[in-house]
Amino acid sequence: MTVAIFYKLAAIFLTVALGWVAGRMRWLDVAPQPGGGSEQADPARLLGNAAFYIFVPALLFRTTVRLDFATMPWRTVAAYFVPALVFLFGVYLWQRRRAGAARHGAAAPSVRAIAATFGNSVQVGIPMAAALFGEAGLAIHIALVSLHAIVLLSVLTTLAELDIERRRAATGQATRLWPMLRQTLRNTIIHPVVLPVLAGMLWHATGLGLHPVVDETLALLGSAVVPICLVLIGLTLAYYDLQGQLRAAFVLSALKLLALPALVLATAHWGFGLSGLPLSVVVLMAALPAGSNALIFSQRYATLQAETTATIVISTVGFIATASLWLALLTALGA
Questions:
Q1: Alpha helix positions (H), 66-124
Q2: Taking every pair of C-alpha atoms in the chain, what is the biggest distance, in angstroms?
């Protein structure tokens, strides 16, 4: 663990701590208005909605428009995303079949799947790739990051919306197949994750690029995603009771830090024939702790917010030990 990476982790924890202090001190609470109701808005949910509806769409749209598909290292990309998606569907199906999982809501399997699969590829991943692998490794990592949210969030959004419509059908709120499929398709496309990605792909296809003012505006909005998400983690720690969430959070953290990188290592090395620098980058990408986008996703569906927050914190702490483990194993493999 280099000094630069340690400092980056320390900055993450300090930002989360600031959010926790803000929550404990009730700095963001909304005071009841004279003559109005006594109900107060949940600051964590308000901040999560701001991130999900304003800042994340700006980041995804700009990222998609700026993608250079011609220079993408597709073999390395496939070596990461194929096992990652297999793992995602495995966790999702396991949670759907798990007894008692339904009590957490229709979107619970997707929320747990994102917590076990979606890594902190920006705040932790970028400085780690730069420190360990230099410019060549960082270029590979950035290629993976550019598709990370687009691929995983789009798939998970579709799964969550399908489950929600199934739940509605089971409770008699929807009884016909085609109306259910039409509503699911609409909810999946008109969504703050999928819609900006589709819009970005369409704009990218025109070849027009972005006007400098528009590009700067989107970049400014996108730069707010990281600090807002970290503060949101701290707020959630302050506002939600984590008692009873730790067991599931430890399981999800173990899946993220140990099981996913093991699957990516086996698939990338023996399935896709990767070795050396590309293999090291994809394995460390998989070994990153749970990312803050998992919390935004859980906030979107009002499902398992406390458990997801605990997973992010526990996996980030555990990453200090497991990162050294994977680096040692890669060294032993000659990567």
A1: 74-97, 108-117
A2: 70
